[in-house]
Amino acid sequence: CALLREHNKYDLASDDGKRQYLQAAIKVLSNVGAIELEIYASRIANELSVAKEVIISEAKRQAKKNNVVQQKKEFTEIQRKEDILDKLNSQRKTFYRAAKAEEMLIALVMANPEFLKGIDEKLSYEDYITDFNRRIYKAVTDRLRQGKSAEISFLYGDLTEDEISAVAKIQTISHTLKNTMAECLDCINVI
Fold it and tell me: Where are the alpha helices (DSSP H) in the chain?
């Protein structure tokens, strides 16, 4: 469908039209799977009298470029979220190690609500060092104690949009962890 739109934009009777169509088609093909790439590259190669291998090679090169651009966007988004955490949690830079442990513990509890019982025996929200993380931990654990979900979407009534973004950043930490009670205990020891 996208290839057909590109095909109809250009005058394929002229060399310049063919070149422009080929460049546009390569951008489209850079976002398709290997099978589609093979099929459409063959069709375009036959239509434009261009080697299929060149089209495939250029589409793969463009896909790599797209990947680099996407990674830069993701890194920028991570940096933005890191900046939000620093902005919202003014104590984070002063108590960086403790703040990171608090964030990790919040992430672990959100991902593993069953850990809360073991944590409650050793730590209260009042033990948190940073005010922002204390408030987030209390909001999350209060919901869990009431038998409610602590998913981000359920915190919208209690938090601002920026705070929700900060919690989303915190929640992603659990993807880098083993999600064990031992990690919770390590965090408690730091706090």
Answer: 2-9, 15-29, 34-48, 52-88, 96-111, 116-120, 131-145, 161-172, 181-190
Pair of tokens at residue 71: 């990674």
Residues of the chain with pLDDT under 50: none
Q: Which amino acid is residue 39, in one-letter code?
A: I
User: Phi then psi for 77, rounded to 5 degrees?
Assistant: -65, -40
What span, in angstroms and rounded, lies between the C-alpha atoms of 11 and 179?
Answer: 58
The Cα 156–Cα 102 span in angstroms is 21
CA distance 140 to 146: 10
CB-CB neighbours of 69 under 10 Å: 10
Whether 26 contacts 65, CB under 8 Å: no
What's the CA gap between 26 and 58, in Å, rounded?
7
pLDDT at 76: 76
What pTM does this model have? 0.59
Residue 180 confidence (pLDDT): 96
Contact 181, 118 (CB under 8 A): yes
CA distance 21 to 6: 6
Sequence-separated (6 or more) residues with CB below 8 Å from residue 51? 45
